[in-house]
Amino acid sequence: MLSHDRLGTPTGEAGSGTAEEITILVDAGKPVAVLVNSTPRPLLSGAVLNERLRLDAYLDELRESAPALGYGNDGLLSGTSTTSPAERQPTGG
After folding, report:
1. What is the mean pLDDT of the chain?
2. Which tens digit of pLDDT belongs to each residue from 15-45?
3. Strands 34-37 and 2-3
4. Contacts of 61 (CB under 8 A, 6+ apart)
5. Average pLDDT over residues 63-78
6. Do 67 and 34 contact (CB within 8 A), yes or no?
7. Would you say the C-alpha torsion 23, 68, 5, 46 has a positive or negative sign?
8. What pLDDT is attached to residue 36?
């Protein structure tokens, strides 16, 4: 899963369809990893901030059973990063 600031639409079973699918995979013992876009962007507010807070809460819970790592630029996704090692550290969301 790649994530930016949205968790998605609740399904009645989970916080979003993606969260529901991840739960199914984790419960089945399948490998799951989540990448969270942590590139700089304007401050969030209102409904967008509330959605990001929902995502952060979900990621905090998910980290108990699957890795959720931040990336600071697209180079980190392709393995051609130009960032320092400190920028490559996992983030809190």
Report:
1. 82
2. 999 999 999 999 999 999 888 888 888 899 9
3. parallel
4. none
5. 82
6. yes
7. positive
8. 86
Check residue 37 and give its pLDDT: 85
Read off the tokens for 81. 């990063």
Query: How far apart are the C-alpha atoms of 80 and 93, rounded to whole Å?
Result: 22
What does the H/E/C string look like for the chain? CEECCCCCCCCCCCCCHHHHHHHHHHHCCCCCCEEEECCCCCCCCHHHHHHHHHHHHHHHHHCCCCCEEEECCHHHHHCCCCCCHHHHCCCCC
The answer to whether residues 8 and 17 touch, using CB atoms and an 8 Å cutoff, is: yes
Cross-strand pairs, 69: 35
For tokens 């320092």, name the residue.
Answer: 84
Q: Which two tokens stand for residue 32?
A: 């799951």
pTM: 0.73
Which tokens in the block code for residue 56? 């952060």
